[in-house]
UniProtKB/TrEMBL annotation:
Enzyme Commission code: 6.1.1.1
Domain called RNA-binding S4: residue spans: 353-411
Cellular localisation: Cytoplasm
PROSITE patterns noted in UniProt: AA_TRNA_LIGASE_I, S4
Record keywords: Aminoacyl-tRNA synthetase, ATP-binding, Cytoplasm, Ligase, Nucleotide-binding, Protein biosynthesis, RNA-binding
Positions with a binding annotation for ATP: K233
Chain's role: Catalyzes the attachment of tyrosine to tRNA(Tyr) in a two-step reaction: tyrosine is first activated by ATP to form Tyr-AMP and then transferred to the acceptor end of tRNA(Tyr).
Protein name listed in UniProt: Tyrosine--tRNA ligase
Self-association and partners: Homodimer.
Catalytic activity: tRNA(Tyr) + L-tyrosine + ATP = L-tyrosyl-tRNA(Tyr) + AMP + diphosphate + H(+)
Organism: Holzapfeliella saturejae
Residues the entry annotates as binding L-tyrosine: Y37, Y168, Q172
Secretion signal, residue range per the UniProt entry: none
Length: 420
């Protein structure tokens, strides 16, 4: 693309919901490189893929030469954002907030690097404001009627909202003002549910700095799947960026299993592929959907971005091994990832007869008669090799660094046996 325009690109990707001043922002981003911020409260110790939605936009600004600023809400996180919720948040201890801040900071560095990127914490300035200072310097500038009309508050009036959460929009507005004054940040981005908080911030900046102040807001559409459900939730819960919570293999599989109807939207949103490459993949969905090339490319790109190229290789190794049954070559780490949600059993290190192993030790077979039948018929594989000898001795320490025995019954039914 000649004359690359970041806002036009975001619109092509379906990533723009509302803007406070469309023309002004397009002009500003063409004239100069700006600082853009997005906030995240440390309510947990890992981001999940729902958080990736605004951060992918920040990353695009970074790739276009602008400077992303991530605000970790050490101050706001201790009280809770009412956006997108129908009940009060549980307050966290300062220790929890601190632990979460550190974990999130590391994840941000992994995604954005350390060049042309900044992390700030709103605890640094919010903790300095006294109650009287808050009421005099900021409370005077907010009209209660306007605050009540914001969707984030209005939607909670039926069930009730505490004064603490009611004031959240003032605190977020102070954040934008501080970043505008001290760091020259001119744009805040966030999810669709943040519109009220973001516009409160641009209003505050103009009240304090004058009506000519160039501060802008942009929100991102709520992402829904083709079936109308919210993106990012699975039957197993959230898909986390922390490899301890969601293994890179599970992460890769999540993207690989996307519906044909959603995959182009996700390629536009979550990858840095060019318009031409995405159009080609869209064509392949029409002409050869069974090859799932678009899904594979999506899984490769997002897994490499969040984890690494190495993680992509491991995930593809595991997929291939499970599909073909050739699991002997898998590493211990690949076994731990690929078999994480499969049935498990535990045995000691001693060798034992295959029938004892299947019936008594692991309970894979319900009876010796059934076990005999399955072994003789060739339905049992130990560590990837078919075993049809009723006298076969299973040696739990012979494979996978002596940590696991993998039993396959039939075509696809795996059990991960831990060796103690």
């Amino acid at each position: 693309m000649t004359n690359f325009n970041i806002i036009e690109d975001l619109e092509w990707r379906g990533a723009v919901n509302q803007q406070t001043d469309e023309e002004g922002l397009a002009k500003l981003t063409e004239e100069k490189k700006i600082k853009v911020y997005c906030g995240v409260d440390p309510t947990g110790d890992s981001l999940h893929i729902g958080h990736l939605i605004p951060f992918m936009i920040l990353k695009r600004f970074q790739e276009a030469g602008h400077k992303p600023v991530i605000l970790i809400g050490g101050g706001t996180g201790s009280i809770g954002d009412p956006s997108g919720r129908n009940s009060e948040r549980q307050l966290q201890t300062q220790e929890q907030v601190k632990h979460n801040e550190q974990a999130l900071t590391q994840q941000m560095v992994d995604l954005f690097g350390t060049e042309n990127f900044q992390i700030v914490n709103n605890y640094d300035w919010l903790s300095e404001i006294s109650l009287l200072g808050f009421l005099r310097d900021y409370g005077k500038l907010f009209n209660v009627k306007t605050m009540l009309n914001k969707e984030v508050v209005a939607s909670r009036l039926e069930v009730g909202i505490s004064y603490t959460e009611f004031t959240y929009q003032i605190l977020q507005s102070i954040d934008f003002l501080k970043l505008y004054q001290d760091h020259n940040v001119q744009l805040q981005i966030g999810g669709a549910d943040q519109w009220g908080n973001i516009t409160s911030g641009t209003d505050l900046i103009r009240r304090v700095e004058g009506s000519e102040a160039e501060a802008y807001g942009l929100t991102i559409p709520l992402m829904l799947k083709a079936d109308g459900t919210k993106f990012g939730k699975t039957a197993g819960g959230a898909v986390w960026l922390d490899p301890e919570k969601t293994t890179p293999y599970e992460f890769y599989q999540f993207w690989l299993n996307q519906d044909d109807r959603d995959v182009v939207k996700y390629l536009k949103y979550f990858t840095f592929l060019s318009h031409e490459e995405i159009d080609e993949l869209a064509e392949k969905i029409k002409t050869a959907p069974e090859k799932r090339e678009a899904q594979r490319r999506l899984a490769q790109e997002v897994t490499a971005f969040v984890h690494s190229e190495e993680a992509v290789k491991e995930a593809e190794n595991i997929s291939q091994a499970l599909f073909s049954g050739n699991i002997q070559e898998l590493s211990v780490s690949e076994i731990e990832q690929g078999f994480k949600n499969m049935p498990e059993a535990t045995v000691s290190k001693e060798k034992r007869n295959i029938l004892d192993f299947l019936v008594e030790d692991t309970k894979i077979e319900p009876s010796r008669r059934q076990a005999r039948e399955d072994v003789k018929n060739g339905a049992i594989y130990i560590n990837g090799e078919r075993q049809q000898d009723l006298d076969f001795e299973v040696d739990p320490t012979s494979h996978f660094d002596g940590k696991f025995v993998i039993v396959r019954k039939g075509k696809k039914k795996y059990t991960l046996v831990h060796v103690q």
